[in-house]
Specification:
The structure is a homodimer. By secondary structure, chain A is α/β, with parallel strands linked by helices. Chain A has 3 domains: 73 residues, Multidrug-efflux Transporter Regulator, Chain: A, Domain 2; 80 residues, Methyltransferase, Methionine Synthase (B12-binding Domains), Chain A, domain 1 (Orthogonal Bundle), CATH 1.10.1240; 119 residues, 3-Layer(aba) Sandwich (Rossmann fold), CATH 3.40.50. Chain A is built from 12 helices and 8 strands. In chain A, strands 5-4-6-7-8 form a 5-stranded parallel sheet, sandwiched between helices. The radius of gyration of chain A is 21 Å and the shape is globular. The first copy, chain A, binds a DNA duplex through helix 2.
DNA sequence: CGTTCAATTTGTCCTAGACAATTATCGCGT
DNA sequence: ACGCGATAATTGTCTAGGACAAATTGAACG
């Protein structure tokens, strides 16, 4: 394995830090300090890219970049989650079972994981499977990812396999015209789809008609789609990684685009800290989803 | 529906044109000409965003931006595909059936589409279903999208429903340890997953063990994943929309990261015009996939 | 008619400054 | 001691134009 160097676009791709931020850090903090090629363009060595990715991960946990960059490399161990989580422990039996499932992922044993999950699904039924297995499991994966126990590719494997399970389960639900019609998608830049699938499963179980459009729909297209499908509700998902500050503005813009009769729901861990407004219903937990659906039905009966 | 304005970041999100390009076009061509807010920052009105998206779509079809921007709005009709395609017509019966399937999508009738596809899958078997139904259908969707017959959200609906069908079909295949072990993924910025799923279906049918990691894996992570899963082959997918010029460099970098014993395959319509090299096997058609697999087996027997 | 070379087009990168939004810190009143 | 508001530090994104290389087109020539 040689040591390739990365240009600034490659570093942006691999770290998620924008070119502007990379140049700004270099100017302000003196890190990173890439070499220059014959054209005077930045060449980042692999070890600096690695450090940048670590810093990004710690930032996503709530640390400040200024501190992180000043810290020497022993911050490698300073990755204890900063957000103090009260960590309401569930019934330990269930917890242990979930840990076992994640152990299978850590061992990269896709087949065993899928089989174990299928069994759980059959035992619990779809609703409890979503609420008691997939949701806490995904949350746990997020924690493991934050404290560095999960590699990126392990998280990807978990996501991919779990997506398949959920989609398969959803496809077995009865079809036919139902109400309300819910359009499920996310805005550009937001590509986490697991939350959408969980919501879809719950709504479909409750008799709603879900129109899954995948992720990354431009705002104007969401408006068109809502009209074409005569959607009663547009449901968006924002992951915790989505820049908080943009959410309120996005919802406001979308509210202006959508007909007044179309409800706008926004869910996912990204909306937890967003201020309430008249633009959209904010849904912070999976239970809220069902409550909000019930409220909608009451209002439209 | 009011007329919201978009800041430059929102336009980048919704059009896929980078901030640099938006500013450059304004400087060079005099379009777009956004208003300015109280901070002197650009505010793009909705109609200009709309025009930019149209221009972007025509560019993806092979037109040059300079010409497009100079053209007045009647280019709306000038969207006949520029790449002259010989269009080898298939047996018209099959063609008509495919058109019917797409008509269901155009009518936004998800349930009918899924049912029709399930029937086809049962009738054709998975391999022929992939090669004779999904592949040409996806190609056709691409053409419809290019000539403006398909809206973005219709293409999304097609993709989402088809993904589900494929994943479901794959999940019914027998499990267990098989060979070779193929790691399937794509690089960051590349999020088209249908091609990967088609390849996965074909390889799984041939007895390969597929490890699906979804899309958007950073290069260094692909290396780690290949090692952790002891992959024999790393297969990447590049869609036609992926910037051609970056592909060769990416493959070269990845080749340096991977152990020499791990094969590197690159497929998808994006690699069609990439020059051959020793870094990776280029796979331009689905048939090539099976041929390349056979060649690998011959070499490792 | 094909091929090579030059001209044009086009995207990305560069520097460096400004400002607004967020977060931290301090001081005050209860 | 603790909550709250005001100031201060931090940090990301925007703006401006200049430069250059990769890709494409067009022209000249064999």
């Amino acid at each position: 394995m040689n040591t390739p160097t990365f240009n600034i676009a490659a570093v942006e791709r691999d770290t998620g830090l924008s070119k502007d931020v990379l140049r700004m850090w270099e100017r302000r903090y003196g890190f990173p300090v890439p070499g220059r090629d014959s054209n005077g363009e930045r060449c980042y060595p692999a070890d600096q890219v690695e450090r940048l990715r670590l810093i990004k991960r710690l930032m996503d946990m709530g640390h400040r970049p200024g501190k992180l960059i000043a810290t020497p490399q022993e911050e490698l161990t300073a990755l204890s989650p900063r957000r103090s989580k009260p960590e309401v422990q569930e019934a330990s039996e269930n917890r242990d079972e979930l840990e076992e499932l994640l152990t299978l992922i850590k061992q990269h044993d896709a087949a065993a994981y899928q089989q174990a999950m299928q069994q759980r699904l059959a035992r619990q039924g779809l609703q409890r499977f979503v609420q008691d297995t997939i949701a806490p499991l995904t949350h746990r994966v997020g924690e493991y990812w934050e404290d560095g126990s999960f590699e990126v590719f392990e998280e990807h494997l978990y996501t991919e396999l779990t997506k398949r399970l959920l989609r398969q389960a959803i496809s077995t639900l009865p079809g036919g015209p139902r109400a309300p019609r819910v359009l499920l998608t996310s805005v550009p830049e937001e590509l986490h789809v697991l939350g959408l699938l969980m919501v879809e499963a719950l709504l479909a179980l409750e008799g709603a008609e879900c129109i899954p459009l995948g992720t990354q729909m431009p705002l104007l297209e969401i408006g068109r789609a809502a009209q074409a499908h005569q959607a009663d509700i547009v449901a968006l998902s924002f992951s915790g990684a989505f820049p908080q500050r943009q959410i309120a503005g996005l919802l406001q813009q979308l509210r202006m685009i959508l007909p007044a009769t179309t409800a706008l729901w926004a869910g996912g861990s990204g909306v937890a800290r967003v201020a309430r407004s008249d633009d959209a219903e904010l849904i912070s937990t999976l239970d809220d989803t069902l409550a909000t659906l019930a409220a909608w039905r009451l209002q439209h009966s």
